[in-house]
UniProtKB/TrEMBL annotation:
SUPFAM superfamilies: Obg GTP-binding protein N-terminal domain (SSF82051), P-loop containing nucleoside triphosphate hydrolases (SSF52540)
PROSITE patterns: G_OBG (PS51710), OBG (PS51883)
Domain of life from the UniProt record: Eukaryota
Organism ancestry: Eukaryota, Fungi, Dikarya, Basidiomycota, Agaricomycotina
GO CC field: mitochondrion
Transmembrane segment boundaries: none
Domain Obg, first and last residues per copy: 60-301
Biological process annotations from GO: ribosome biogenesis
Protein name from the UniProt record: GTP-binding protein Obg/CgtA
GO molecular function: GTP binding; GTPase activity
Occurrences of domain OBG-type G (ranges): 302-573
Swiss-Prot/TrEMBL keywords: GTP-binding, Nucleotide-binding
Organism name: Rickenella mellea
């Protein structure tokens, strides 16, 4: 029997027990209350540790710029071999050729939201070496780099200092500082394979000298061609998923966008047979794969960006507006959201949300609670009998205004826009406090910004002022893009229904007065050139002195979402029209 040393290990052990029971699909109710409490305790500690870790990372977990070097696979070496068989003492040369090195491809995927998982150095697999009995080496499997959708890939210019050596540059660098004989030796080592103990003899032979001359000539020609050809630098805007058939002619089947070509395989010794030399004892090695330096930039494009303090309810709002489809985490601790997450909001002809209710009736719980509820349903087998979306009878689905799949498709979509949930912004974020503010780069391109403040908090006005100042510190003029203040958690102003309503009204009025008085100042500084440029880039219709709209809602209970929805629709519509008058 396991013995626990102290309370801490007992808690850990109990948490492990409950996890074990869950894992094997048993009912956790069989466990004692003490064990279940310990599990909860350990879970909350785990979450705390996670939050602390995130704070320590200071936003480094979100990466939207990256320079990477890509080296395609080296070709396999050719083989020097002679055929051996019973009664054939000296068979013909039988070395196989080397296989091709791996090509490197880039594929955009919607499953990633940051560049932090993309490696800084990528090296393709080498091709297989040729073998005796005319066996050629295997071509290497292509190497695939997955990047988030919205990534722009550019090849770094030749004169840029961040660019690594290309294939030939690397070759020359390795020969630097060597004497002539050492250089020749090194170059030969990199290019030739010799039969055991035959190297000295080979070097004296005319056949070898001739082959070497041809090889160098070919190499020089190739290099001159590469350098003189004004090869257009790679520039890919990966804003949609890769589709092999539409991105390339049908006869080329590629797993993604080619960024570096693999090296060619070496040539086996049978290729060097001449009339004078019937048994060549040398073969060539495979060539190095192409080397490129790429600069990756992640551009998250969302029409609307949410800006708010940690825990203000930005993620809850995004989930409410997307009918729970946006995969962003909701939890009651700060800095839950680490990376910007984009969701699509769909508006029907009646001006309401196609997915999710905008007039209450839907509760957006913390993701952990939802997960637990789902796990519980799984454990109890309740999901086994559940009808799939396609099995739902249409009458049932369309009755009572339910937001099921059927209803969604029966209703017509009239307008859609994207909205980005961002990590929390706090005071001094510009000095890298909290998660910093590097993520703001992704909302610079938004058409409109929306402040989300916690109405139940002590001072929503103060929050608003800090948010505006942080935006301005990041980029002067950026706060001019803000169009609305969402006062969230209005349901929390308690003290009885009527008292709560009265309190909410007063707080809201105070907030409105503040916005009217203070938030105009942003427009007042419009004269500066930087501000004007930002405003112009944004394509936002700014009426000078216009006060921001203030709307009180409850994202968690989907209360009063209709009004902000209509306003958002108007802002996005106006901004799109301004950018593209034909729409
Ligand atoms: N009562 C109530 N709780 C809410 C409301 N909106 C959000 N919450 C709760 O507030 C907590 C924080 O919500 P999140 O949506 O994770 O907040 P966030 O702004 O995304 O926080 P970070 O990701 O840390 O920046 C969660 O426990 C939510 O359930 C609301 O309208 N009413
Ligand atoms: Mg969040």
């Amino acid at each position: 029997m396991l013995r626990c040393h102290g309370r801490k290990s007992e808690v850990l052990l109990n948490a492990a027990r409950l996890r074990h029971v869950r894992k094997y699909n048993k009912d956790v109710a069989v466990l004692s209350k003490e064990i279940r409490d310990d599990y909860e305790l350990e879970e909350s500690r785990r979450r705390q540790r996670k939050t602390d870790w995130k704070r320590r990372q200071r936003g480094q977990t979100f990466l939207d710029h990256l320079t990477m070097t890509v080296q395609a696979g080296k070709g396999g070496d050719g083989c020097v071999a002679f055929h051996r068989e019973k009664f054939v003492a000296y068979g013909p040369p039988s070395g196989g050729n080397g296989g091709r090195g791996a090509d490197v491809f880039i594929v955009p995927t919607p499953h990633l939201t940051t560049l932090s998982s993309v490696p800084k150095h990528v090296r393709g697999l080498a091709g297989g070496h040729g073998r005796g009995s005319w066996m050629n080496g295997r071509n290497a499997q292509p190497t695939i780099i997955k990047v988030p959708l919205g990534t722009v890939v550019r090849e770094v210019k030749t004169d840029d200092s961040s660019r690594a050596f290309d294939t030939y540059g690397l070759d020359e660098d390795q020969l630097k500082g060597l004497t002539l004989s050492e250089r020749v030796k090194k170059m030969r080592e990199r290019r030739w394979v010799h039969y055991p103990d035959a190297e000295d003899d080979n070097l004296q032979r005319d056949a070898f000298k001739e082959a070497e001359k041809i090889l160098y000539r070919q190499e020089r020609e190739k290099r001159a061609e590469l350098r003189s050809r004004k090869r257009s630098l790679l520039n890919l805007d990966l804003d949609r998923e890769y589709n092999s058939s539409s991105d390339h002619p049908s006869y080329i089947s590629q797993p993604g966008y080619l960024v570096a070509t693999g090296g060619t395989g070496g040539i086996g010794n049978p290729a060097f047979i001449t009339t004078d030399n019937r048994s060549p004892k040398f073969a060539t090695r495979g060539t190095d794969g192409e080397r490129v330096t790429l600069s990756l930039e992640l551009k998250i494009l969302a029409d609307v960006g949410l800006v708010g303090f940690p825990n203000a309810g930005k993620s809850t709002l995004l989930r409410a507006l997307t009918g729970g489809r946006a995969k962003t985490e909701v939890a009651d601790y700060e800095f839950t959201t680490l990376n910007p997450v984009v969701g699509v909001v769909r508006i029907g002809v009646d001006g309401g949300l196609l997915e999710g209710g905008d007039e209450g009736g839907r509760v957006i719980e913390d993701t952990k609670i939802e997960e637990e509820r789902f796990a519980g349903m799984m454990e109890r087998g309740e999901l086994a009998e559940a009808l799939t979306r396609n099995q739902l009878p249409p009458t049932e689905a369309s009755a009572g205004g339910s937001s099921s799949f059927m209803t969604m498709h029966n209703l017509q979509e009239e307008f859609r826009f994207t909205i980005a949930d961002n990590p929390g912004l706090i005071s001094q974020a510009s000095e890298n406090v909290g998660l910093g503010h590097s993520f703001l780069r992704s909302i610079e391109r938004s058409l409109a910004l929306v402040y989300v403040v916690d109405l139940s908090g002590p001072s929503p006005e103060q929050e608003l002022r800090i948010l505006r100042d942080e935006l301005e510190k990041y980029k002067p003029g950026l706060s001019a893009k803000a169009r609305m203040v969402i006062a969230n958690k209005a349901d929390l102003l308690g003290g009885g229904v009527e008292a709560g309503e009265e309190k909410a009204r007063q707080k809201l009025q105070r907030l409105e007065r503040f916005v009217e008085k203070e938030m105009r100042s942003v427009h007042a500084v419009q004269k500066s050139a930087a501000v004007e440029r930002t405003v112009k880039d944004a394509g936002v219709v700014l009426e000078v002195g216009k006060v921001l709209d203030v709307v009180a809602i409850s994202a968690k209970f989907s209360e009063n979402l209709r009004k902000p929805l209509q306003l958002l629709r108007r802002y996005v519509g106006e901004a799109r029209c301004l950018r593209n008058p034909e729409i």
